[in-house]
C-alpha cells in the first residue's frame, strides 16, 4: 500500500506509542466509517474501533508483518464491529441516519441502503468507506474478488432502482 503505509514497522512491533498514534491518525476515520456501516450506530462503531486498536497493540507483531496493511486493518475492525453488533442482537437494530459517506439527512437514500442485503451493504462499505479494492474485499470477506465486484454492482443497481432509476 503506497498511499498511506503503516508507520515504522519496527516501532509498531516494539509497541511505541508514537507509532500507534500515527496509525490511529492515518486510519481511524476509515475504520470508524466501516464499523459504523456494519453496526449502524456511532457509539457501537467507536467501541469497535477502540477494541480493534487494543487488539492491534496486543498483536503488534502480526500487525507489523502484515502484507496488505489496509486490508489487515479493515479486516480487524470488521471482526470487532461484528462482535459488537452480535452483543446487541437482543436489541432492535435502529440505524442512525447517515454514515460518514452518505449525504446527511437523505431519508430516501438511508432507506435504500437499509434495504440492501447485508452482504451487499458490507461490500459497499468496504469499497467506499474502507477504500479497498475488490481483491482486498475478497481477502477480508474470504470470497473471490469477482463475487465482491458482483455484490458491489448489484448494490449499486438496487440503489439506482430504489431511487427511481436515475443514474
Question: What descriptive keywords fit this protein?
Answer:
Butyryl-CoA Dehydrogenase, subunit A, domain 3, mainly alpha, single chain, 167 residues
**Mind describing the biggest β-sheet?**
none
**Beta-strand proportion:** under 5%
The N- to C-terminal Cα distance equals 32 Å
Instruction: State the helix count.
Output: 9
CATH class: Mainly Alpha
Shape: globular
Q: What low-confidence regions span 5 or more consecutive residues with pLDDT below 50?
A: 97-103
CATH architecture: Up-down Bundle
Q: Output the helix-strand order.
A: HHHHHHHHH
Rg, Å, rounded: 16 Å
What is the fold-level CATH name, i.e. the topology?
Answer: Butyryl-CoA Dehydrogenase, subunit A, domain 3
Class from helix and strand fractions: mainly alpha
Q: How many domain units? A: 1
Q: Summed up, what is this model?
A:
The chain has 167 residues and is mainly alpha-helical. The chain is built from nine helices and no strands. The protein has one domain (9-162): Butyryl-CoA Dehydrogenase, subunit A, domain 3.
Amino acid at each position: 500500500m503506497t498511499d498511506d503505509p503503516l508507520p515504522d514497522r519496527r516501532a509498531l512491533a516494539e509497541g511505541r506509542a508514537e507509532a500507534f498514534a500515527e496509525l490511529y491518525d492515518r486510519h481511524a476515520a476509515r475504520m470508524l466509517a466501516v464499523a459504523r456501516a456494519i453496526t449502524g450506530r456511532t457509539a457501537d462503531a467507536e467501541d469497535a474501533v477502540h477494541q480493534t486498536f487494543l487488539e492491534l497493540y496486543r498483536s503488534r507483531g502480526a500487525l507489523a508483518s502484515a502484507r496488505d496493511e489496509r486490508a489487515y486493518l479493515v479486516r480487524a475492525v470488521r471482526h470487532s464491529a461484528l462482535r459488537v453488533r452480535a452483543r446487541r442482537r437482543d436489541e432492535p437494530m435502529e440505524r442512525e441516519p447517515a454514515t460518514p459517506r452518505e449525504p446527511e439527512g437523505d431519508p430516501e437514500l438511508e432507506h435504500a441502503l437499509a434495504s440492501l442485503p447485508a452482504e451487499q451493504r458490507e461490500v459497499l462499505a468496504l469499497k467506499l468507506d474502507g477504500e479497498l479494492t475488490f481483491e482486498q474485499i475478497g481477502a477480508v470477506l474470504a470470497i473471490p474478488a469477482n463475487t465482491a465486484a458482483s455484490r458491489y454492482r448489484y448494490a449499486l443497481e438496487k440503489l439506482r432502482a430504489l431511487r427511481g432509476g436515475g443514474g
